[in-house]
Amino acid sequence: MKKYLFVNPAVIVAMIVYLVVLAVIPTIIVYFSEVINPWIKITFVVSWYFFLISYFYFTGINKVVVVSDKSVEYRSFKKSIKLNWEEIVEVGLVYYSPYPRGRPTRFICFSKVANNTQIRITKFSNECIYMRNRRGLIPYLHTYWKKEIGDVKGGCK
């Protein structure tokens, strides 16, 4: 059994940089402001840090895909989807872009409905589990899924 974050580790690094920038700029502004009461400054900064850390946790770290010998499971704060390997009809790539003209991102899709991969989607379906491809994932999936995995032959593209 292996647990994978829903997003790539590179996205987590980018989110940390973004979090630091969003934390430092308001802190500097509040620190050099002479008009604001010190207790209000402290309350604002603590509240702002709490908001940023909560947002970072719920949008990045909280979403996990667990691949085991029995099933593939997506877990987050709001929902949980579990597909047994017997239920899964196909495993392949989907191209996700929330906007029709946006640049798509490739996700691996575990689908219990046929012909649900190799397409462009604008919304995630509840019939499938999605996760970003990463190094070593495809060979690991081949230990449980003996059929072809979309147009991916074994590498991380």
Automatic annotation (TrEMBL):
This is Uncharacterized protein.
